[in-house]
Design brief:
By secondary structure, the chain is mainly alpha-helical. The protein is built from 3 helices and 2 strands; from the N terminus they run ββααα. It has a two-stranded antiparallel sheet with strand order 1-2. Helix 1 packs across helix 2.
Length: 85
Amino acid sequence: MRTICTRLYRCYSEALSTSLACLPVYVCNCNGLKPRDVARAIDAGATRPREVFAHNQCTAQCAKCVCEMRQIIQDTRESWAMAAE
């Protein structure tokens, strides 16, 4: 699944084909945040996009990345829950 956000910041999920299953180079183009930067923030305890930005010492600029960050946070939580079982 991947999250799609419209210009009005409404998010929905759709199936992701296996050929598109790679991570993007940047999650946040405005601040230059890569998936590994988001992952490090989550490992440090971030549970919301605001906390991801704070961990990386920046703030949201255009907020187009917020839906994708939420999806990464949710996927990480789900994988941790599955690993704990």
